[in-house]
Specification:
The protein is mainly alpha-helical and 172 residues long. The protein has one domain. 79% of the residues lie in helices and 5% in strands. A two-stranded antiparallel ribbon has the order 1-2. Helix 1 runs antiparallel to helix 2, helix 1 packs antiparallel against helix 4 and helix 2 runs antiparallel to helix 5. Keywords: Membrane, Transmembrane, Transmembrane helix.
């Protein structure tokens, strides 16, 4: 297991804890009026990680194709920054959520650092994508990716439902 894969696994566990504990149990975001924008961002983040986890768990990206995981990570950083602004404008975060977000941001920085350190070596190789062993961390990251993509669809439907509910309330 590489350090990058280990940090991705940690990120999946921390992110899953944030979703289940904070978004579902404490705040109940999927049914909270006014949470449509936040749910859209969460859906986008989960889709990004749904691609990033298996991309770095099951494949070695070389040459110009190594930009794929780097661009996914850059997109995630953009979504996280926007999500922080939206959350700050729409609700007060409970203490457990604040703590988990700090840990997630620290870990995201570690992931970015590890990826940026590896990127020059990956770019120097002939372009291609090569399968990594599908056992161990690769299979764990693939499973996390599948869970993340599934949850992304759930949050997208929640965002749509909240938006339709809000537009119906405005029309009434």
């Amino acid at each position: 297991m590489t350090a990058l894969q280990a940090m991705l696994l940690l990120h999946g566990l921390l992110g899953g804890a944030d979703v289940l504990l904070n978004h579902e149990l404490l705040v109940r975001l999927p049914s909270r009026p006014g949470a449509a924008a936040e749910q859209r961002l969460h859906s986008l983040r989960e889709a990004i990680f749904g691609l990033l986890f298996p991309s770095l768990g099951l494949f070695a990206w070389q040459g110009w194709l190594a930009w794929w995981p780097a661009l996914l990570l850059l997109a995630e950083i953009g979504v996280s920054l926007r999500d922080t602004v939206v959350e700050g404008r729409t609700r007060r975060l409970p203490l457990p959520e604040q703590i988990l977000h700090v840990l997630l941001f620290i870990n995201l920085g570690v992931i970015a650092t590890l990826l940026l350190q590896a990127l020059p070596d990956w770019l120097a190789l002939p372009s291609g994508v090569h399968a990594l062993p599908a056992d161990g961390p690769g299979s764990w990251l693939a499973a996390m990716g599948a869970i993340s993509l599934t949850w992304s669809m759930r949050d997208a439907l929640s965002a749509r439902r909240l938006r339709l509910r809000a537009s119906g309330a405005r029309a009434a």
